[in-house]
């Protein structure tokens, strides 16, 4: 389920270079990932999305960090401790370094991308258990971004002036391959969340990889219809039942 | 018919107990309802013929146990994330390593201005 959630995030990218007017350093969003079967909800994991500024010798970057950790009741059965990071330009959210460190049960995988936007290449490093390491250079299209950046970049889009039904195609790099996805703006909806009733922009997420996400309109994301455009609710299809992502707290918002 | 319902009730009640003790305890409600319905019909049919098998009453007992565990867990168990020290340490270490790597990147690649970010 966690994989699916993050895969949804891969698809949420735009090739446009929108200016960041929604995301500030110090923002922390906490979610509960839930499995929903016939209306019976089971909480699985806590997902957090955090930002902080990182000063390097040459610039100040924005660190986008996502973590997923199963609740303690699951730890004896299937323990997940995932860390996803992206170091991006604070103005355009252009990624420079991406890291994915996943610990799921006995499975471990580390992936690192170093972006070279000048050459349109990504230097990747893959690590697995037993000191397995693989380095590979990948050619990418201009504007290709990683999944964490995609999740944040979707918030920069101007939904306010976007006609309902507008679709945008997107390019995201995941597992050293580029994917084209599509998002569709479905209009405004008011939903009840743990941080109050929120008027939201509802977007549908689809993929050119039909096997991965089941159908075009099976996966939805709700972003608050304010200047912060934070994701408050997500719904995605899994083979039996639905996966849901519900916000539990939001701090350090820009507006 | 009666036998089929009895078997269904047994299977569903056992499944309900198994689910109830697992973290997926909320899902135990579904087999519990199935066990109750099948058990009640089997009980009614058995009563009509004059002999009520003990196994049907046993399925009721199992279902009640499953529902009691599920209710207790949903009322008193809170969701919390523990054992995050390793993850937290990894986050700190990862940031330190990332800064070193970003320092080594060609300056031409980082075509951004050094701006102040709101904290």
What report would you give on this structure?
The complex is a heterodimer of chains A (255) and B (119). The longest helix of chain A is centred in the first third of the chain and has 9 residues, at 2-10. Chain A is built from 3 helices and 14 strands. The model of chain A is unreliable at 9-16 and 210-215 (pLDDT under 50). Chain A has a 14-stranded antiparallel β-sheet with strand order 8-7-6-5-4-3-2-1-14-13-12-11-10-9. The two termini of chain A are 31 Å apart. Chain A is mainly beta and 255 residues long. With 119 residues, chain B is mainly α. The longest helix of chain B has 23 residues, at 54-76. Chain B has a domain at 2-76. In chain B, helix 1 runs antiparallel to helix 2, helix 1 (2-21) packs parallel to helix 3 (54-76) and helix 2 (29-49) runs antiparallel to helix 3 (54-76). Chain B contains 4 helices and no strands. The model of chain B is unreliable at 112-119 (pLDDT under 50). The chains are: A mainly beta (255), B mainly alpha (119).
Q: Please count the helical segments of chain B.
A: 4
Q: What's the β-strand tally of chain B?
A: 0
Strands ordered across the widest β-sheet of chain A: 8-7-6-5-4-3-2-1-14-13-12-11-10-9
Helical residue percent band of chain B: over 70%
The total number of structural domains of chain A is 1
* Structural class by sheet pairing and helices of chain B: mainly alpha
Average pLDDT of chain B, to the nearest integer? 84
The shape of chain A, in one word, is globular
Layout of helices and strands:
The complex is a heterodimer of chains A (255) and B (119).
Chain A: H1 2-10, E1 28-37, E2 40-55, E3 60-70, H2 72-75, E4 80-88, E5 95-104, E6 107-116, E7 121-128, E8 132-139, H3 147-153, E9 167-174, E10 177-193, E11 196-207, E12 219-224, E13 231-237, E14 242-251
Helix pairs in contact in A: 1-3
Chain B: H1 2-21, H2 29-49, H3 54-76, H4 85-104
């Amino acid at each position: 389920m966690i994989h699916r959630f993050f895969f949804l995030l891969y698809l949420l990218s735009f090739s446009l270079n929108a200016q960041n007017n929604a995301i500030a350093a110090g923002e922390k969003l906490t979610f509960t990932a839930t499995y929903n079967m016939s209306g019976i909800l089971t909480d699985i994991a806590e997902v957090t999305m955090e930002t902080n500024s990182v000063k390097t010798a040459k610039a100040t970057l924005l660190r986008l960090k996502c973590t997923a950790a199963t609740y303690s009741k699951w730890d004896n059965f299937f323990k997940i401790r995932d860390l996803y990071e992206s170091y991006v330009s604070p103005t355009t959210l252009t990624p420079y370094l991406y890291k994915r460190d996943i610990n799921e049960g006995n499975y471990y995988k580390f992936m690192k991308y170093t972006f070279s936007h000048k050459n349109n290449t990504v230097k990747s490093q893959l690590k697995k258990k037993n000191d397995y390491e693989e380095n590979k250079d990948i050619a990418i299209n201009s504007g290709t971004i990683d999944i964490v950046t995609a999740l944040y970049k979707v918030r920069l889009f101007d939904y306010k002036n976007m006609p309902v039904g507008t679709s945008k195609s997107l390019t995201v790099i995941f597992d050293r391959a580029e994917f084209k996805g599509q998002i569709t703006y479905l209009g405004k909806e008011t939903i009840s969340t743990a941080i109050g009733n929120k008027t939201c922009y509802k977007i549908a997420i689809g993929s050119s990889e039909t096997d991965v996400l089941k159908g075009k309109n099976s996966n939805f994301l709700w972003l608050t219809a304010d200047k912060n455009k934070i994701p408050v609710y997500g719904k995605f299809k899994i083979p039996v039942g639905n996966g849901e992502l519900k916000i539990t707290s939001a701090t350090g918002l820009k507006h | 018919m009666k036998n089929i319902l009895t078997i269904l009730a047994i299977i569903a009640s056992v499944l309900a107990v198994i689910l109830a003790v697992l973290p997926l305890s909320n899902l135990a409600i579904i087999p519990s309802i199935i066990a109750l319905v099948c058990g009640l019909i089997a009980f009614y049919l058995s009563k009509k013929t004059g002999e009520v098998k003990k196994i049907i009453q046993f399925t009721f007992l199992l279902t009640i146990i499953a529902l009691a565990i599920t209710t207790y867990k949903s009322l008193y168990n809170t969701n919390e994330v523990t054992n995050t020290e390793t993850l937290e340490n990894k986050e700190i270490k990862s940031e330190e390593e990332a800064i070193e790597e970003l320092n080594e990147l060609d300056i031409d690649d980082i075509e951004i201005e050094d701006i102040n970010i709101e904290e």
